Request: fold
Amino acid sequence: MSEREINTVKSLTRNQIHNPRFRGLLLQYAAELAPHCVAEALKKLLEKS
Reply:
């Protein structure tokens, strides 16, 4: 992920996390950079939406 993409993910609000536009970035962040507990929570959250 680029620095810009990382900054985008980190600055998302709660409502923006559910936006399909950011789904790919969030999944990539969860897979590559997020701590295990954060990655797991993100994946569960995205499965529900």
Summary: The chain has one domain: 3-48. The chain has a mean pLDDT of 94. The helical segments are 3-10, 14-17, 23-32, 36-48.
